[in-house]
Write the structure tokens for this entry.
Amino acid sequence: MAGILKVDEISEANQNDGVILNNTVKVRLDDNSTKTLLSTSGSNTTLNNITLGSSTIPSSSFMFRNKIINGGMQIDQRNAGSSVTPASGGYTVDRWVYEATQSSKVACQQVSTAPSGFVNSLKLTSNSAYTVAAGDVFQIVQRIEGSSISELAWGTTSASTVTLSFKAYSSLTGTFGGFLRNSASDRYYVFKYSIPVANTWTDISITIPGDATGTWLTTNGYGLGIGWSLGCGSTYQTTAGSWGSGNNRGATGQVDLVATNGATLYITAVQLEIGTVATPFEHRPIGVEKSLCYRYYYRMTANPVNVSGTTNAAYIGFAIGRAYSTTAGTAILFLPEPLRTSPPVFNYSPISGNNWDYGISAMSLVDRQLADTRTIAIYATITVAQSQSSWLLATGNLSSSTDSVFMDFSAEL
């Protein structure tokens, strides 16, 4: 049905000027009736009665618009919800790394305290009342792979504006700080955000112009870091709100979480997207979110539940291979997703007690070309009766089904 675009009862001249009367935009149909296309109330704008035609082409994909992985803090392979006090460079929930110049100042934990529509948040707790020195920094960071930010075109005159949004909750009030940085740590953007009411979830949205200079990797290396400051000394503080050269990490006059013993900060719903508007948080299916995390880190944990559903903590298999002598063997396993890079950093439960079977005394990754970064070959020093026999890389006879035996494969940035 044909129609004439009409903006309430304003004149044609005003319509051409784009004036909107009474906060609505309407279309008049052939039968002289009208339908509202757009209405505004306060800061909210609503589209109504609109069907997008086949020729409608969005400027960018609405799916996978969030550059942050595990922004809802749901995946915690390493710690499974336990509180940890990580060293600098230690990971908390998946994809979130803690960085600091002093040890033992902050405890990190995945918790169920969360705003409506969310399941988890990352809780950060100050372990003492620490006086932040000039050269100190304490921060929680997500390091984003360069291939995930290539469309931002940062470092060029076509650099895209982005919007960072998240939800924060703290026992403290005031102005807090954070930053964006490149992999060389020679370009930064310091931002600030306000939590006006203690112990209340606050929605934060910060629009950041793209950086037209600097070097921003678009490979599988470290492209962009986004950090929330938990304490920052004067050496690394600056006025928030603009790009600069250097390595600043905090806003002048910001609240330092580590300065108050027992102070807490909770963060969730973290999203970074192209554009000047914070869209609703992108709730990806949990299987998809796990797959994104597995590109950087995968923990394989012994499962004591049999296929039949019964529990048996003995001889739980990780991989199968060949014992090419009575004292050595190689086992092959396949990860659920290809890793970002190969070889990964390999770690496993201590070789002690009944953790591992077949008298395993050492394990390492085999230094050879494999099919892809999803295929892992593990060399082990073992004790078996017969050379050239099949060999199962397995746990020993664990004392209980609660014993945790694992292998880690890390390709973090």
